[in-house]
Amino acid sequence: MSSPSQRVTLEPRCCRWLRRLGALAILCLPAAQALAATVRLAAAEQPPYIGPAHPREGYVAELVRAAFERVGYTVDIRFYPPARARSLAASGQVDGLLPVPHDDAFTPEFALSDPFPGASVGLLKKRSLDIHYPPDAPVRPAETLRGLANLRFGAVRGTSVWSAFDAAAFLKREYVDQDLQNLDKLALGRIDLMLVDKFTASDLMILHRPHLIGQLDFMQPPLFRSDFHIAFARRAPNHERLRADFNRGLAALAREGRVDDILTRHGLSARGPAADGRKVLTVATVNNPDMLTLKTLAAEFTRRHPDVRIEWRVLDETSLRTRLMTDLAIADGQFDVMTIGSYEVPLWAARGWLVPFRDLPPAYREDDLIAPVRESLRHDGVLHALPFYAESTMTYYRTDLFRRAGLTMPAQPSYADIGRLAARLHDPAAGVHGLCLRGRPGWGDNVAVITTMVNTYGGRWFDDAWQPQLDSPEWREAVSTYVDLLRRYGPPDAHLNGFPETLELFARGHCAIWIDATVAAGKLFNAKESRVAASLGFAPAPVERVREGSNWLWIWALAIPASSPNKELARRFIEWATSPEYPSLVAAQAGWVAVPPGTRLTVYDAPAYRAAAPFSGFVRQAIASAYTQLPGRRYTGVQWVGIPEFPAIGHRVGTEIARALVGEQDVDTALRAAQAEVARQMRASGYIRQ
C-alpha cells in the first residue's frame, strides 16, 4: 500500500493573513470560505477501527467525515505515528487528533468531542482455562478483577484504557510494548489473561497467528467499552466552533441511524436484540450483485415467516472474511448465516465450526446441484454448506473498441496477447483504460488473480516439503507481468480496487479488457445495469506455458456457524435461498439474466435462461473444466492453498505486491519479503521443521 503522504491529495489553502486584510480579503472570499470549510485532522492508525489499508480508511474515518459533511465541512485526514500525530495536533498545526479515548492525559492540550462507539475491551484466555462470568449475572468489572487476582494479566505498556485495571494494585500484571507480544505469551502459557480489544485480538490472530484460531476465547460480554473522541487542539483558534459543529453533525447521524449503518458496513456492530417478539436472524454476506438481490428478495422469506426479522451485514469481500473469522477466532457468536466459500467449508467443517446439512428434503433436489460444486462443499461425505452461486474466470472485452481498432481477441488469449491488445486500446484521455484487474491486497482480491497467473507461468506456492516458492523465477515473471500491465494500462489507484470496483469500472465503459469472475457476466449483459451490454465479448482466461490452473472454481455458499443460537431458523433460510424455486423468483423480479449462476442443472437447461444469458454455455463449461487440485501438488485449491494459514499468508503476500504496484518497492524486494514471511509462518505452524 502507498504511504499516507502518497495517498492524500493536498487541499488548496489560502494564507491566513489574507483574512486580516480588510477590503482585500473580500477579493479572496471564496478561497477563505473553502479554508474555513476544511478540517485537517491527524490520525494514528488503530486497526480495525481506522487506518489507510481499511475500506474508506476505516469506520472512524468514515464516521468523522460523515458527521462533518452533515454540517457543511470537508475533512482532510492524514496518518502518522502516534507520537507525531499528537505533536502535530497539540501544536495547532492541524485542527485535531483522532481517535482518542476519554483520558485525563489529553485534557490539558485538547478539548474532546462528544463520544462515539469505540473499542470493546475485555479478557482473552485459552479455552482450556475454565473460567467464565456467572450465567445471566451482570458483569461488574471491579469485582471480576478481584475474583481473578490469582491469575497473571498481560497489558500493553504506556496505555491507560481502564482506570479500574490501572488502580488494581492486587493484580499480577506484566507489560509489553505490543498486543502481539501478549498474544504469544498467552499462547505459551506465560500469562493467563490478556486485556485487549476483541476486534484487535481477532485480527492479530487472523493476520499474524492463524495457528491460534480455535484455541482462545474472548470472555463475553466485554468488561467495558472505551468510546472514541476527536481531540481538538486548544491552540487552534476555532477549536470550540469545530467541536460544537462536529457534535451537532454526530448527533444528527445518530438520530438518522447512520452511526449504526457505518458500524455495520465495517462489520463492527453487535448482534441486534429481538424486537416485537420476532426472532432475529443475522446474515453476513458479501457486497456482490447476486447477494444484494438476495437481500431484496428476502422479503418473500419473511412474508412466509412473519415472526422473523433479518439483520443484514453486507461487507466487502476482505472485511467479510475477517469478521467471519472473528466469530471463530474469539467465539464471538455474531452470525446465524455465513457466506463462505469452497476454501473455508472443508477446513471449518473438519474443526466442528459448521452445522452439517443432513437429510435435506426431497423438494430441495440435491442431485440437481452441479457435481463439482456439490462435492466441493462436502466433508466426510456430508454437505456443510449449500451453494448460492459458483464461478470460474473469463476474459471480458469491449467488441466496439476492438472493431474500431481493427483488433481480434484470440480464441485462447495469452498474457502476452493481453498486453499487446491493452497497449493498443489504452486511451485514458477518453476515459478508457486498456486493462482492469483486482489490485486491492487480500487473498481473495489481488492474490486470487495473481495465483492463477503464477499457475499458468508454471509456478506454485509450495514444494512437496512445504517450502514456499515465492522467490522462484516463475513467481517473479508472473508478478512482474501483473505489475507492469496495471502500471502501464490500468486505472489510477488500481491498488484500491477489488471485484466490485473493477466490475463497476468495466460496466461503466472505463475498461477495454477485464479478467475476472464469470459471475459478473449477468450484470454486464444486463442493459439496465451495464453501459457495455450491447458490445460485450468474452473469451477464456489467459494462459501462458501451463494451461492447468489458469481459471479457478469458486463457490459462494451459505453455512451455519456452530455458535449460532438460531440454527433451525438459519437452516430454513438457507434451504429457501438455494432452493430450486429461488431462480424462478429472481427471474420474475429481475429477469433471467440476473439468476445466480453455476449451481443448478435445471437453470442451464431452461430455454428462457439460455436465451437471456448468451454466456451460459461458456460459463457452465468453464466451471465444469476448472480444477480443484492441480496435478502433482499436495495442496488443494487453484487461487488459494487449502491450509488454515492461507488467509494470513495471502494477506501478507498481497500487501507486498500492492506496495510494488504503487512503486514503494520493486517486485524482487516484494517477493523476498513475502518469501521470508511465509516461511516464518510455515515454521510457526509446524509445516517446516525448525
Describe, in plain words, how this protein is organized in 3D.
The chain is about 40% helix and about 15% strand. With about 700 residues, the protein is an alpha/beta fold. The strands form 4 sheets. Strands 1, 2, 3, 4, 5, 6, 7, 8, 9 and 10 form a 10-stranded mixed beta sheet that branches. A 5-stranded mixed beta sheet has the order 12-11-13-20-16.
What is the count of β-strands? 20
Helical segment count: 28
Kindly report how far apart the N and C termini lie. 31 Å
Strand coverage percent:
15-25%
Could you give a short account of the major beta sheet?
10 strands, mixed
* CA-atom Rg in angstroms: 26 Å
Overall, the morphology is globular
Could you name the ranges where pLDDT drops below 50 across 5 or more consecutive residues? 1-36
Task: Classify the helix fraction into a percent range.
Answer: 25-40%
**Mean pLDDT level:** 89
- The secondary structure category is alpha/beta
Describe the secondary structure blueprint for this structure.
Blueprint: H1 4-7, H2 23-27, H3 29-36, E1 38-44, H4 59-70, E2 74-80, H5 82-90, E3 96-100, E4 110-112, E5 116-126, H6 141-147, E6 152-156, H7 163-167, E7 172-176, H8 179-187, E8 193-197, H9 198-208, E9 216-218, E10 224-233, H10 239-256, H11 258-265, E11 279-286, H12 289-304, E12 308-315, H13 317-329, E13 337-341, H14 344-350, H15 371-376, E14 378-379, E15 382-383, E16 386-391, E17 393-398, H16 399-405, H17 415-425, H18 446-456, H19 473-489, H20 499-507, E18 513-517, H21 521-524, E19 536-540, E20 554-559, H22 567-577, H23 582-590, H24 601-605, H25 607-612, H26 616-625, H27 646-661, H28 667-684
Parallel strand pairs: 1-2, 1-3, 6-7, 6-8, 11-12, 11-13
Antiparallel strand pairs: 3-10, 4-10, 5-8, 5-9, 5-10, 13-20, 14-15, 16-20, 17-18, 17-19
